[in-house]
Amino acid sequence: MPKIKTHKSTSKRFRLSRGGKGKLMRTRQGKSHLRRKKPANVRRTYDEMIVVEHKGTQARVKRLAPYLHEQE
Fold first, then answer.
1. CA torsion angle for 32, 70, 65, 9 (degrees, to 10)?
2. How far is Cα 31 from Cα 12, in angstroms, rounded to an integer?
3. What's the confidence (pLDDT) of residue 69?
4. Residue 13: which residues within 8 A CB-CB, separation 6 or more?
5. How would you label 18-52 residue by residue, b for 16+ Cβ within 10 Å and e otherwise?
6. Which of 9, 15, 39, 58 shows its CA 20 to 30 Å from the CA of 26?
7. What string of H, E and C letters represents the secondary structure of 22-61?
8. Is the pLDDT of residue 28 over 70?
9. How much is the mean pLDDT over the chain?
10. pTM, rounded to two decimals
11. Contact yes or no for 69/10 (Cβ under 8 A)
12. Cβ partners under 8 Å of residue 26, min gap 6
């Protein structure tokens, strides 16, 4: 059985949480530009990862990046 190709941008945008739970994590949008005029506490929130709650998004990521769940 051949390997499945991974969607590279999906594998860069999503991570699995550490600590045994393995929850799907993502970064917040809006981090890349126009940050200078935003307050410091807003800029700090861009650095933290948040859990993906939507089941449809979790299934889509699992299909696009099948080996993301096998790392670690």
1. 30
2. 15
3. 75
4. 26, 27
5. eeeeeebbeeeeeeeeeeeeeeeeeeeeeeeeeeb
6. 39
7. CCEEECCCCCCCCCCCCCHHHHHHCCCCEECCCHHHHHHH
8. yes
9. 89
10. 0.77
11. no
12. 13, 14, 15, 49, 50, 52
How far is the C-alpha of 51 from the C-alpha of 63, rounded, in Å? 18
For residue 34 the two structure tokens come to 């126009």
- Token readout for 19 is 């600590």
Nearest to 64 by CA among 1, 11, 2, 3: 11
pLDDT band at 16 (very low <50, low <70, confident <90, very high): very high
pLDDT of 50 strictly over 80: yes
Domain residue extents for the chain:
18-63
